[in-house]
Design a protein that fits this description.
Length: 503
């Protein structure tokens, strides 16, 4: 059943109690709520926005970047039913087994769970994300000998917008009550400060606060908003809930996305190929993992590149175009300039690009913190201090250099490494010329068996709390290189099974 939270007064909510209150309706929240309902549990599913994008709701996501150049904070996510699935590109890949293992030259790395803990949820994750069976990978340009690399693949969602697919199910559900425009503003804890008694919300329509009572509560607000809320929840615990060791919001991780070079090919290339490092390359060079995107330069369309150039000329038009089309405008590639280059030089079809999405090192000072500005509900806004370091830069430089050597040794082509990678300043190109990041917001309430190294335990329960849990990529212990949505859903389904036997 679906309700508008502003249509009811506080007394209406006071008469209701649920088994689980799930806050947020992105891939984590929707997956969790649906599986809990199949277990027979009653669920209050709370969404801060409505069924469509609105400036009133999206403005809550405004914040300030105070670290490395990054996307505007309100532009990298969506605050309405479906959450960030509304701006998801559909890329799917499960984490490799090695992604969960500690790496000796990467302090704090390693998860308290492994791939085997998530594999049982692969089939249902495929269903949730509408992912078909893996297709055969294109033949590698290098034949069977890929040297220090292994060829990998990604799968893609056939229907990226989750909310429309599940809307009929949500309307008909007798176990899930979905409340729209229900904005979380606080949690009321018991006298021991260990148990959440109820969650406190406000709607856009009414000034009164209302409360949701449940046996367990799960924050599925996203990698930036999960820590933001916990830090704001300081009425009963001065440092914020779950922040007894000053870890909430720390270790903010991305997947740095950069173009690392251009390739002159010996023969035309038909399909994009993906490569990841062999384990021995990671250990020998003391780097992190990554995915290389080896792509042919395709024939550009004049009409398409004209539209891209027009949309990217003004920030507002760019955002409007993305909302209308439902896809990333990709202002960092193409455009009329690239079309003209290709038109003047037909031989450009024998060129390719090499780009990377890399794992990022855990850095305590890379973090989400609170600024002084507040939103309309009095919640302090985010300051994002994204940082990257020498290990991140070395990983990308080593990846490009090693792949360039493979190209030359195999006589497939030659790589011209991007100038910025040869610069000793070790600064990534910014948003004016590069994609910069996923945007994937990870590790800000990271998982660890020790409360001195993480915010949640292996069951996603906040350390020191009895009935407060967190869903989403903020619980990732490390980011790996794979796009996070697939693993987000696997973790949510696993958490539902845990709650089904513990609530």
């Amino acid at each position: 059943m679906i309700f508008h939270a502003g249509a009811f007064g506080p007394e209406w909510f006071a008469d209701r109690a649920f088994d689980v209150c799930v806050i947020g309706t992105g891939p984590a929240g929707l997956s969790l709520a649906r599986r809990l309902a199949r277990h027979g549990l009653t669920v209050a599913l709370m969404e801060g926005g409505g069924t469509e994008l609105s400036f009133e709701s999206q403005e809550i996501y405004d914040g300030e970047n105070v670290g490395a150049d990054y996307w505007p904070l309100s532009a990298s996510r969506r605050r309405f039913l479906g959450g960030s699935s509304n701006c998801w590109g559909g890329w799917c890949r499960a984490f490799d087994a090695a992604d969960f293992d500690p790496v000796k030259h990467h302090p704090l790395s390693g998860w308290p769970i492994g791939k085997a803990d998530l594999d049982p949820y692969a089939a249902e994750t495929d269903e949730v994300l509408d992912v078909g069976a893996a297709e055969d990978m294109p033949a590698s340009s290098f034949g069977k000998d890929t040297g220090d690399f292994r060829q990998i693949d990604f799968r893609f969602s056939q229907e990226r917008l989750l909310a429309p697919r599940f809307m009929a199910e949500l309307r008909a559900s007798q176990k899930i009550q979905l409340f729209l425009e229900a904005n979380l503003v606080d949690l009321e804890l018991d006298d021991r400060r260990r148990t959440v008694r109820h969650a406190i919300f406000r709607s856009f329509m009414r000034p009164e606060k209302f409360e949701i009572q449940a046996k367990a509560f799960v924050l599925c607000l996203g990698g930036l908003e999960n820590p933001r809320f916990l830090l704001n929840a300081n009425r009963q615990i001065a440092a914020g809930i779950g922040n007894q060791h000053d870890l909430v919001g720390r270790f903010f991780n991305e997947h740095p996305h950069q173009n690392v070079g251009h390739v002159l090919l010996r023969e035309p290339m038909l399909n994009r190929e993906f490569y990841a490092p062999q384990r021995h390359l990671i250990e020998q060079q003391e780097i992190l993992s990554f995915a290389l995107y080896f792509s042919p330069v395709r024939q550009l369309s004049f009409t398409h590149e004209l539209i891209r150039s027009a949309a990217c000329n003004v920030a507002f038009i760019e955002r409007l175009a993305e909302v209308v089309r439902g896809t990333d405008t990709r202002c960092y590639v193409g455009g009329l300039d690239d079309f003209l280059k290709q038109w003047r030089n037909p031989d450009i079809m024998l060129t390719g690009t090499l780009s990377i999405a890399s794992e990022q090192a855990l850095d305590r000072e890379s973090r989400v913190r609170l600024g002084d500005d507040t939103d309309r509900f009095g919640m302090r806004r985010i300051e994002l201090d994204w940082r990257y370091g020498e290990l991140d830069f070395r990983t990308i430089r080593t990846a490009a250099t090693a792949f360039g050597e493979l190209l030359a040794e195999s006589n497939v082509g030659r790589l011209k490494i991007a100038d910025w990678l040869l610069d000793d300043t070790a600064v990534f190109p910014g948003t004016d010329t590069a994609q910069v990041g996923g945007p994937h917001h990870m590790c800000t309430t990271r998982m660890s068996d020790s409360p001195r190294q993480g915010v949640v335990d292996r069951d996603c329960r906040v350390h020191g709390m009895d009935n407060l849990f967190i869903g989403g990529s903020s619980v990732f212990a490390t980011g790996g290189y794979s796009n996070p949505t697939y693993t987000i859903v696997q973790l949510a389904l696993r958490l539902a099974d845990h709650l089904a036997v513990s609530v």
